[in-house]
Amino acid sequence: MNCETFRDSALDWLEGSLGDAAGFRAHRAACPACAALLAGFEDTERVLRGARVPAAPPELWSRVAAAIARPARPRWIPFAAAAAILLALAGLVAAGRPPRPELPVTIVDAGPALGAFVPRYEPADAALALGD
Amino acid sequence: MPTSADRLTEPFRGARVSESQERVEGGTDDAERVRRHLAGDPGAFRELYEKYREKVFASAYRILGEEHAAADLAQEVFVKIHAELRRFKFESKFSTWLFRVAVNHALNRASETSRHARIEERLARDGRGGPGDPAARPERDERVQRAILGLSPKLRAIVGLRYLEGLSYGEIAEVLELSLGTVKSRLFLAHETLRDLLKDVDG
Known about the structure:
The complex is a heterodimer.
Chain A: H1 3-15, H2 21-30, H3 32-50, H4 60-69, H5 76-96, H6 124-130
Helix pairs in contact in A: 1-2, 1-3, 2-3
Chain B: H1 4-8, H2 15-38, H3 44-64, H4 67-84, H5 94-114, H6 117-125, H7 139-149, H8 153-163, H9 169-176, H10 180-197
Helix pairs in contact in B: 2-3, 3-4, 3-5, 3-8, 4-5, 5-8, 5-9, 8-10, 9-10
């Protein structure tokens, strides 16, 4: 075992799951740096295992019980609410759309039919006749 | 009403007790309790709560570092577990599922609260920490907690699962849905950081 494999094996050693324990011990005895690393890890582990944490507050169960006693909101309610909101918005948009402005209707005399615009020429002899 | 210091004098219900308890009761009892709950036994969920309340609270406390936040989170976790119990598949241990829910909730909360870190720092300076006032705790335990809070939330989660809950590396990998190698490398990193921070703390 070398320093690298020793480091890789250190956590397994701490867990008690290391297969090559003899090789690990031999390297620890021969390498002060790795021995110091492991000693530091073992000290840290001892401190962490011995550290206490506060206990859960005694009223925690009453809080949990009150919360789970509340009638559960059916899962479809949020979807139904979202759908209702969308419908309402759509209705508002439709209702709020400004009406098309009513253009003033002007009745335009379209005049005579197209055929009426065909110029009519008086016969030349007739015009001459007017100059009489 | 008991204070934090009073409650610290209660028997510690962390890793050492829980490991022996787990060995005695095993995971099959949990599955049986889940089945009883699903069959309508009103006491079954309370039994699961009593068995795991300290573990869930302690894990939350290790990650969040504050008792009120840990209690709120523990409440949320048990309410969620109660609501989702019908979906529990008996393929894994109940405790694995419970820890996964708890740790994921706590990591999400830690991520949210990190945004409010400045407010928390100000409150701490003003001495308005509430019943979770660190000054009420033994200095040694407080130093350990401060050192752990120096780690990233993900490393805190692994440290808590290992040294509070007493899970093996393989069980931690299952709870956090990580590879065994990732769990070990993160724990190694946590050890390297904590070794310096805790070197003069008596074990």
